[in-house]
Amino acid sequence: MTSKTVSVRLDQDTLEHLGVLATLMNRPKAWLMAHAIRRYVEDQAWQVEAIQQAVQRQEQGEAKFAEHEQVLAWLESWGTESEQEPPACS
Q: 29-46: per-residue pLDDT in tens?
């Protein structure tokens, strides 16, 4: 795959951390940036697609949801002695 050059502005702190990481990993900074951007784009594309599919299911009346308060209570119970089962969707 051919690559193209783009310009990215980074704050000084991030640029310094990138340099340290590149040295520790024995990789060029450009490789790390390309890798990070590729991973970010793949992750965001997956999330956007999942959201679009959920919205489509909801619009077609096929989606099931759990109440926000129930999900929040379930999440807040994680790691406690009274950890709850996940809420049912309806």
A: 999 999 999 999 999 999
